[in-house]
Design a protein that fits this description.
The complex is a heterodimer of chains A (317) and B (838).
Chain A: E1 4-27, E2 37-47, E3 52-57, E4 63-69, E5 73-86, H1 94-97, H2 101-107, H3 118-123, H4 137-143, H5 153-167, E6 169-170, H6 181-187, E7 189-190, H7 192-205, E8 210-217, E9 234-242, E10 246-251, E11 256-257, E12 262-268, H8 271-274, E13 277-283, E14 290-297, H9 298-304
Parallel strand pairs in A: 6-7
Antiparallel strand pairs in A: 1-4, 1-5, 1-13, 1-14, 2-5, 3-4, 8-9, 8-12, 9-10, 10-11
Chain B: H1 2-5, H2 36-43, H3 47-64, E1 67-69, E2 78-80, E3 82-83, E4 88-90, H4 92-116, H5 121-124, E5 156-163, E6 169-175, H6 182-195, H7 198-201, H8 209-222, E7 232-235, H9 244-254, E8 258-259, E9 264-267, E10 270-275, E11 278-282, E12 284-287, H10 310-315, E13 320-322, H11 339-347, E14 358-360, H12 364-372, E15 377-381, E16 391-392, H13 398-410, E17 415-419, E18 425-429, E19 437-451, E20 454-457, E21 462-465, E22 481-483, E23 485-487, H14 517-548, H15 555-567, H16 583-592, H17 600-613, H18 620-628, H19 640-663, H20 669-694, H21 698-711, H22 715-722, H23 728-737, H24 745-763, H25 772-779, H26 792-822
Parallel strand pairs in B: 3-22, 4-23, 7-8, 7-12, 12-13
Antiparallel strand pairs in B: 1-2, 5-6, 5-19, 9-10, 10-11, 14-17, 15-16, 15-17, 18-19, 19-20, 19-21, 21-22
Helix pairs in contact in B: 3-6, 6-9, 14-15, 14-16, 14-17, 14-19, 14-20, 14-26, 15-20, 15-21, 18-19, 20-21, 20-24, 20-26, 24-25
Classes of the chains: A alpha+beta (317), B alpha+beta (838).
Chain lengths: 317, 838
């Protein structure tokens, strides 16, 4: 199967109650190139025009655009658009899949008498508590329902994903961006961000390495209904370190492995490392962003945007 | 006679404990040589005179206002620093060894930081467990890969030392991000030397000033400033920080402006200080703010103390942070066990000074050992960010002990077991005739500065003393006593100080240096709030007087006053969906309700906040008047009569504030902002008030003139001039046109026309906003139109003009805010330029 091509558009609009004189923002909206994901052109449109704009790469390898405004503004609009070709991730070899999870856990533990292989050392960055993900015995206890003695890692992780999908209710009213993960865990409801944080907490609490994936997912309109602009949302899922393979991506919100329909923006220890837009305003009062995300496969692009309105109309070759 | 009362031997009855080192006596049977000069000096004096000196020390501390804010101290936030009369003396030879070891540790930790925020070979080679880096909040991910412009991560490093019973020194803790105490150490030296007579000054004691001079010149020398004059600032979290006194003291001593995060701004990846004279480029930030709080954009988002974008400026190499952001990662006792190997690897040398024996529980064998020997160990948090108090294992019994063990087993890498340290003891002055000196446990904090020619150790330090005999934990967080620390010097060197002995003509200032924008901003808002409080109080008093009706309830006047109060946002707009609040209750709430932002009480609170920010510029009388302000409204009055009495008191205080504003404050740039703030607020308030009758129908208008004169504080002017009841034409002239009435619109405009250009001159800003057009229009107003029987048209025209003037006053206020305080530009296009077309 050839790679699938998508056009992604991610609009963010802030309307501030009061004039803002000075503001600083970090945008994490540039998708990463990966062995199975190729970015075919990216366009970032920012209004008003920033006084200063600069790109840099963070410690996790994600590209960040830093922007600053020093003239009065009462709104901010950021439109990110890109084409991307997504291939299937390579399959996990039998040998890697059969590794008992305790072996993996022990291989991530420090011992004075040995060195970590390079990939293991890198993975340890995602093995500990982080700003939004605690390590706690209640997560370990939950995970141990499926991480039983001697279980191979990969089936156990997939079972954990299924368990979370079964036990938790998708409910956008139950949490917001800043709801602590413990609360979402207790009330057994939340959105993709919560499910992802919970699954990461489970994995780290039993000594495994897991990271927070930020990006988009292709959604399928209800049967007979047309695809709509702005009907999608940003998405989050988990990747877990599998020695001998790399990072296996799992989506507890949809109970699927990430395959062809997940588009990666970047990753970090948790949401706080990869917030798509983070800013500090001087003044400004209350503000809630309007966010519209549209993910469309190449073959639906022309009909969806029949009236234009995109920056990248052509698929770059 | 004197001889008889002299203390011939201060050491009589000094009995140190056997099981630990005594600084005075353990080196031999009699005090070591380096103590002798000091003891001789003590022995030449009487007990009374020494006690008098101890009192002088205490007084000096109070006079200098040296404090250490203790969290949750029931005695109040600030507690005076306490300094013992008896310094700690260290011998020259011993000091040499000690300072070499401390300098080596500074070098080592600096290299460890370079490694952790660089290639991380220590992790690669297994010399450090990842848990001690990735597993703690102190590792600042966004700082990874940033190399400081100076090449150094540590510029001022401090280490806490304790002396073992065998006389050797141990490291207890490393202070790597923003160490405190160097300023207190210097203050202790100043106070102690002031308390003693001249012979004392000739004792062979190493001088501290050279260390601070090196710190000062090194920081300037490392500044990425090209050909510019380097500007170093000291960044403080603010006056609520427990060591704020030290920040003020050090800033003055080093000659660095003391700034808070809000005083700085990042533009084009460079850091600037906001001053009333414009933005000034900052090259070095000597900080007392912890890592996580320094930049809300990239570090802790909830920090209001930092500078958004600071990390970007650091990354761009345009500012030097001392110490580097992220250096807090090394403030961890869990590292101790790994340092000997790391020292061999990075320095090719063995670690010169041992750390106190520590077991990091993240390694299974260490955890097992710690749990087995719990009674002999102190359990400490592995990382500073955990904010956990050390726990003595032997003190934990039963359920508590089980809970501790469970916590350690579930999060082993977060705990460290540390050997119980028997601290050494040194004599403190008790002043008692039978036993003038008593032994007490001490710890020593030593400071090291990075200089271009290597590490320089402060020859001295901060000796901290346990709060009670037998106590082993020394922490300033609990308050406590400290000592001056003397290092015996080989030769008597000339003494120098960064503080001039006395001022010379060339030091005299009749103007001022750059005034921080924050000062101007708070004075400006002090002016606006003071005027608004006064205006609101007058308005409410007029309404309450008519309500309580010593004559009769004056319904008509009340309607107009209510209308004005709503425009002032003192009374809420009526809610069409709710039952109207009875007027008496609404008025009382407008007087005293702190939850209502437009109330007199709230405005006064805002005024007091602004005043507190510029307290050092206000005379103590002025400050007392400010403190008195809200008192009549606490508790809030519950009757109309009570409210009127309270408002009378508030108005008296407002008037004295106005007097202070005119007569008591130095007429510098800050003062101009205070006056302009008052003027603009009064102008806007007058316009609001006068427009109420102008926009009313003829009948209502006639009932409003009386209270209008009263609220605009022009009753007397009117009465002495016209000696008849208020008439429209004369009232308009008095309140709008009369340039001699300090409560008229014209008067405010004319004053502002002098003060705004003055502000422009003082701040060097390009464009002092101009209100002269309005003055001209007003002068051209034909008052004859008001002679008509139905002057409705004239009223409306004047009303519109006043509305425009009010809007202009607010615009000017915004513009001052923008140009002088926030330093941003007004956006002249609406920001819709680069649309979808490109």
């Amino acid at each position: 199967m050839a790679a699938v091509r998508y056009h992604v558009r991610h609009d963010t609009r802030y309307h501030y109650d009061q004039m803002v004189g000075e503001s600083h923002h970090l945008l994490r909206l540039t998708p990463r190139n990966l062995p199975w994901q190729r970015v075919l052109g990216h366009h970032l449109a920012i209004r008003p025009e920033p006084a200063k704009q600069r790109d840099f790469v963070d410690s996790f390898g994600n590209q960040i655009t830093a922007v600053q405004f020093t003239t009065d503004h009462d709104s901010l609009e950021v439109i990110s658009e890109f084409w991307v070709a997504v291939d299937a991730c390579p399959p996990v070899s039998e040998r890697a899949a059969d590794l008992p999870w305790e072996t993996v856990r022990d291989s991530l533990r420090y011992r004075a008498d040995r060195r970590f292989p390079e990939d293991h050392l890198k993975a340890t960055a995602f093995r500990f508590a982080s700003p939004s993900v605690p390590i706690d015995s209640r997560y370990a206890d939950y995970a141990r329902q499926v991480f039983t003695e001697g279980q191979p890692l990969v089936p156990a992780v997939i079972a954990l994903m299924a368990l979370i999908h079964r036990d938790f209710v998708f409910d956008p009213t139950a949490t917001d961006t800043f709801t602590p993960v413990n609360q979402a865990f207790e009330q057994r409801r939340g959105v993709c961000q919560d499910f992802t944080h919970i699954m990461i907490a489970c994995l780290r609490s039993i000594g495994l390495a897991a990271r927070y994936m930020s990006g988009y997912i292709l959604t399928h309109p209800p049967k007979g209904k047309p695809r709509l602009v702005g009907a999608d949302a940003t998405h989050a899922w988990v990747s877990v370190f599998v020695p001998g393979y790399g990072w296996l991506e799992l989506d507890p919100t949809n109970n699927v492995l990430a395959q062809r329909e997940h588009i990666v923006l970047g990753w970090g220890r948790d949401f706080s490392d990869v917030t798509p837009l983070r800013g500090v305003l001087l003044g400004g009062g209350d503000h809630e962003p309007e966010i519209a995300v549209t993910v469309v496969p190449q073959h639906d692009f022309a009909s969806l945007y029949a009236e234009g309105g995109t920056y990248l109309e052509e698929v770059p070759e | 006679m004197i001889k008889q009362r002299a203390v011939t031997n201060v050491l009589s009855h000094y009995r140190p404990a056997e099981d630990r080192y005594d600084e005075l006596l353990s080196a031999g049977a009699s005090p070591a040589a380096h103590w002798q000069p000091l003891l001789r000096q003590f022995n030449q004096e009487t007990l009374d005179s020494l006690n008098l000196r101890a009192q002088t020390v205490a007084n000096a501390i109070t006079e200098d206002g040296v404090t250490y804010n203790v969290y949750e101290d029931p005695l109040g936030a600030a507690r005076p620093w306490e300094v013992d009369l008896m310094p700690l003396v260290l011998g020259a030879g011993e000091w040499q060894r000690l300072s070499a070891a401390v300098a080596q540790r500074a070098e080592l930790l600096d290299r460890v930081l370079a490694d952790l925020y660089g290639d991380q070979t220590l992790l690669n080679e297994g010399l450090l467990p990842p848990a001690l880096v990735y597993g703690q909040a102190g590792f600042q991910w966004p700082c990874q890969g940033i190399r400081p412009v100076s090449g150094r991560y540590l510029h001022l490093y401090a280490v806490d030392l304790a002396r073992a019973p065998d006389g050797g020194w141990w490291v207890i803790a490393d202070r790597t991000q923003a160490p405190s105490g160097a300023g207190y150490a210097l203050q202790n030296r100043l106070v102690i030397s002031r308390a003693f007579p001249a012979p004392f000054h000739n004792l062979p004691v190493a001088n501290l000033a050279n260390f601070f001079r090196s710190l000062q010149t090194s920081l300037s020398g490392f500044a990425p400033c090209g050909n510019e004059q380097p500007l170093c600032v000291l960044l403080t979290p603010g006056r609520f920080n427990e060591t704020y006194f030290e920040h003020v003291f050090l800033a003055r001593y080093l000659g660095f402006p003391l700034v808070e995060g809000q005083d700085l701004t990042v533009r084009d990846d460079a850091v600037y200080l906001k001053t009333l004279q414009g933005l000034r480029r900052v090259h070095v930030i000597f900080r007392r703010l912890d890592d996580g709080f320094c930049d809300p954009l990239e570090l802790r988002a909830d920090s209001v103390l930092g500078v958004p974008g600071l990390l970007g400026a650091v990354r761009a190499g345009k500012v030097l942070m001392a110490n580097a952001l992220g250096s807090g990662v090394l403030e961890s006792a869990a590292l101790f066990g790994f340092l000997p190997e790391i020292s061999k690897r990075l320095l090719g040398q063995p670690l010169a000074m041992p750390s106190v024996a520590s077991w990091w529980c993240g390694e299974k064998p260490a955890l097992d050992y710690v749990l087995e020997h719990l009674d002999e160990l102190v359990i400490k948090p592995a990382f500073a960010s955990m904010r956990m108090e050390p726990v003595f294992g032997y003190q934990r019994k039963g359920v508590e002990r089980d809970r501790l063990i469970r916590k350690m087993q579930s999060h082993p890498h977060a705990y460290v077991g540390q050997e119980l340290v028997h601290l050494s003891q040194a004599p403190i002055w008790t002043g008692q005739p039978d036993r003038p000196l008593a032994p007490r446990s001490i710890g020593l904090r030593v400071f090291v500065a990075a200089t271009p020619s290597g590490w320089q150790v402060m020859p001295g330090g901060l000796t901290r003393v346990a709060s009670e005999a037998g106590v082993e934990v020394i922490s300033m967080q609990r308050g406590g006593l400290s000592k001056d620390t003397w290092v015996q010097s080989d030769a008597s060197k000339p003494t120098t100080s960064l503080i001039k002995k006395r001022l010379l003509v060339s030091d005299l200032l009749d103007g001022e240096r750059d005034t921080p924008s924050r000062v101007g901003e708070n004075l400006f808002w002090m002016g606006r709030h003071a005027e608004r409080a006064e205006g609101t109080a007058r308005l409410l008093r007029a309404a309450l007087n008519r309500l309580s009706g010593h004559d009769q309830v004056d319904e008509e006047a009340l309607l107009g006053l209510q209308q004005a109060a709503r425009i002032f946002e003192t009374l809420p707009e009526p809610d069409p969906d709710a039952a109207p609040e009875p007027l008496p209750r609404a008025l009382l709430s407008a007087v005293g309700d702190l939850d209502h932002p437009g109330s007199v009480a709230s405005i006064l609170k805002g005024l007091q906040f602004n005043a507190s920010q510029v307290r050092d510029r206000l005379s103590s009388d002025n400050w007392h008047a400010l403190n008195r302000l809200g008192k009549p409204l606490a508790p809030p009055p519950t009757t109309a009569d009570g409210a009127v009495r309270a408002l009378n008191l508030v108005l008296l205080d407002c008037i004295s504030l106005a007097g202070f504003a005119m007569d008591d404050i130095t007429r510098d740039t800050g003062w101009v902002f205070l006056i302009i703030g008052r003027r603009l607020e009064r102008l806007a308030n007058l316009c609001t008030l006068i427009s109420v009758p102008l926009f009313s129908d003829r009948f209502s208008r006639s009932t409003m003139l009386e209270w209008l004169l009263e609220v605009a504080n022009s009753e007397v002017t009117y009465r002495t001039r016209y000696r008849r009841s208020p008439e429209l034409l004369a009232v308009v002239h008095t309140l709008v046109m009369d340039p001699t009435n300090p409560h008229s619109v014209m008067y405010q405009l004319r004053q502002l026309q002098q003060e705004l250009p003055e502000m422009g001159r003082k701040t060097g800003q390009l464009f002092p906003p101009d209100l002269s057009d309005f003055e001209r229009t007003l002068r051209g107003l034909d008052l004859h139109l008001f002679e008509k029987k139905r002057p409705d048209e004239a009223c409306e025209a004047l009303g519109n003009l006043l509305r425009d003037i009010r809007a202009a006053a607010y615009r000017v206020s915004d513009e001052i805010q923008r140009q002088c305080f926030i330093h941003t530009r007004f956006s002249r296009n609406s920001g819709r330029r680069n649309g979808v077309e490109h």
